[in-house]
Specification:
With about 300 residues, the chain is an alpha/beta fold. It contains 13 helices and ten strands. It is globular, with a radius of gyration of 20 Å. The model has no long low-confidence stretch (mean pLDDT about 95).
Length: about 300
């Protein structure tokens, strides 16, 4: 989700990466689009361009209930339904946005969305750090998915998603990092560990979100959320060969008793040795096959210098 998704899609495809790219929508003009109509037009073009690509998918991505008006939210949901796509949105990220919604409309954001018919299996509700009992029940009953971004929520002091309680209610859960501005290292293995530890600490239950469940949330849970669990998310005959090889023959992974526990509690992205996407070897012995790392780092340094001027 965010501006210039066409570039994101093109770069991801060139690198052989899977990506679900957001058709971003915000009510106000930005360098990307002049207003809602332009966002919708660009979103339609993005979807049409990548509709049949084996790696790149699209999702309707209104930014948040406080940056998109209700008529445009309804229109976004209709567009998503027409194209058979999900609806990805930042919801209940902070107490401030909830308080502002109550003051302005008399309702909390999630219940406003529910009244508009937007809360259902197609909804990817990102963050969800502040949920009352009614909202937790509603998320569970409607089949909406919650995308948990533990480290970004901690860095920004946004709050803690009640993931242990949501898991107990059978809510569909997936794991995210949020963007680099909110989470510097974007390490999904680190997110797994933080999610598992936070769940235990917040619930005062050391058995909450065990390693195997955290691993499922980070893999098959994500595939379910974007509606692609018949194709990816687990190692099953007939699914795409999306594979990650981890090196557990290291001191920090010793002694090895339970693989899932070691992966979740003892490993980070430095443990990743090889990656295949749709059977294509894209990371070989920790060296990217499809990316020019020196050129990418040099370009990042150039932009850093421009931003500091």
């Amino acid at each position: 989700m965010y501006f210039f998704p066409e570039t994101t899609a093109a770069v991801a495809a060139e690198a052989g990466m899977r990506a679900t790219v957001g058709m971003i929508l915000i009510d106000f003009p930005t360098p990307y689009a002049s207003g809602p109509e332009a966002y919708f037009e660009k979103g339609e073009a993005l979807h049409a361009q990548w509709a049949n690509d084996p790696l790149i998918d699209t999702t309707m991505a209104p930014h948040a209930p406080y940056t998109v008006s209700e008529p445009h939210l309804v229109r976004a949901a209709e567009l998503a339904e027409r194209h058979g796509r999900r609806l990805h949105m930042h919801i209940h990220e902070t107490l401030g946005e909830i308080d502002a919604s109550v003051e302005k409309t008399g309702s909390r954001p999630l219940m406003r969305l529910d009244a508009l018919g937007l809360v259902g299996p197609q909804l990817l509700a990102v963050h969800m750090t502040h949920l009352d009992e009614r909202e937790r029940d509603r998320i569970s009953a409607t089949g909406a998915h919650v995308i948990h971004c533990p480290e970004a929520n901690l860095k920004l002091a946004s709050g803690i998603c009640p993931i242990a309680d949501l898991a107990a209610r059978g809510v569909g859960l997936a794991l995210g990092t949020d963007g680099a501005a909110s989470n510097n290292n974007l390490d999904i293995l680190g997110e797994m560990r933080t999610a598992a530890m936070l769940a235990k600490g917040a619930s005062l239950d050391a058995t909450a979100l065990p390693a195997h469940q955290a691993l499922e949330i980070a893999t098959l849970g994500g595939a379910r959320a974007i509606g692609r669990d018949q194709e990816i998310g687990s190692l099953v005959v007939g699914k795409a060969a999306d594979l990650v090889s981890l090196d557990l023959n290291t001191p920090e992974a010793d002694p090895l008793h339970d693989v899932a526990s070691q992966v979740v509690y003892a490993c980070g992205r430095e443990s990743v040795r090889d990656v295949w996407i749709a059977g294509r070897h894209v990371l070989k012995a920790r060296e990217p096959v499809t990316l020019d790392v020196p050129a990418t780092r040099a370009r990042a340094a150039e932009w850093r210098d421009q931003l500091q001027r």
